[in-house]
Amino acid sequence: MGVKIDIKNLDFYYGDFKALSDINMKIEDRKVTALIGPSGCGKSTFIRIINRMNDLIDGTSHKGEIVYEGKDIYSSKVDVVDLRKRVGMVFQKPNPFPKSIYENVVFGPKRHGIKKKSELDKIVETSLKDAALWDEVKDRLDSSAWSLSGGQQQRLCIARALAMEPDVLLMDEPTSALDPVATSKIEELIEELKNKYTIVIVTHSMQQAGRISDNTAFFLMGRLVEFGKTADIFSNPQDKRTEDYITGRFG
Ligand SMILES: Nc1ncnc2c1ncn2[C@@H]1O[C@H](COP(=O)(O)OP(=O)(O)OP(=O)(O)O)[C@@H](O)[C@H]1O
Fold first, then answer.
1. CB-ligand 1 contact for 174 (6 Å cutoff)
2. Angle between helices 117-130 and 101-111 in degrees, nearest 10
3. Does 42 contact ligand 1 (Cβ within 6 A)?
4. Do strands 3-14 and 60-68 pair parallel, antiparallel, or not at all (unpaired)?
5. Are 124 and 102 in contact (CB under 8 A)?
6. Could you tell me the distance, in angstroms and rounded to a whole number, from the CA of residue 230 to the centre of ligand 1?
7. Is the CB of 56 under 6 A from ligand 1?
8. DSSP string covering 126-150, please?
9. Which residues, in sequence order, are bridge partners of residue 36?
10. Beta strand pairing status for 198-202 and 32-36?
């Protein structure tokens, strides 16, 4: 199986505080990689590094490499805007813009210079279909995105990310603000999306990690304690700390 992103000896700092230490991880192509671990262990920090979102925070620094498409994403040859186009992100709370459903989806493509109405229409239809939202909204594309339910808004945010034709999709607890029905729709969608995209997802739910991911990474206090196939991590963890966490005995 191909490696999509190769993280080597990664340390990450907020000022003097070392939030991640010596992380090594190979993220597999077209698989779902789940990041689990207790609050504050560095999951969000890690996922935000992959598309350099942490650059937006003053005083951050790193050591090590994150190799994507043959280049370290921090090398001067990498254009950050282009990187974020290729490595899209969906956040914890659905955050559609206060615009119509249509305008939310075409926001990124328009900023990247696509103007032709027919082309934009096609992007809207394809992205909403891929995000399993098209049938629910096709007759009201001009309605406000805020008129959608929370689960629909999150699928719209996924459609907005897909409209940029990404290669990798980062999801930071995408279902934590959703009810069980909306959550299971997003989980089904992730199952579908991994045929086309490499997905990295932060989740607090062991059940969710078990249901949707191929590989699981367990973080603790800024370190990667265990990483491997989800089935192995859950049925036969090698580290006592992983076992304690997944069985809920973590104190
Ligand atoms: N902007 C920041 N400035 C300084 N320290 C930060 C910043 N963001 C996170 N940290 C610290 O880095 C560590 C890791 O935080 P992070 O948010 O990555 O953890 P997490 O595993 O995603 O937690 P949670 O599950 O609660 O979201 C924590 O100690 C946190 O306080």
1. no
2. 120
3. yes
4. antiparallel
5. yes
6. 24
7. no
8. HHHHHTT-HHHHTT-TTSBGGGS-H
9. 218
10. parallel
Cα 153 to middle of ligand 1, angstroms:
26
Does this complex have an ipTM over 0.95?
A: yes
Model confidence pTM above 0.90: yes
Q: What is the pLDDT of residues 85-144, one digit of tens each?
A: 999 999 998 999 999 999 999 999 999 999 999 999 999 999 999 999 999 999 999 999
Cβ-proximal residues to 131 (8 Å cutoff; 6+ apart), any chain: 155, 156, 158, 159, 162, 189
* Residue 159 three-state SS: helix
Element (H, E) at 25: strand 17-28
Hey, what domains does the chain have and what are their CATH numbers?
3-247 (3.40.50.300)
Kindly list the strands in the beta sheet with 17-28, ordered across the sheet, starting from the edge strand earlier in the chain: 17-28, 3-14, 60-68, 71-72
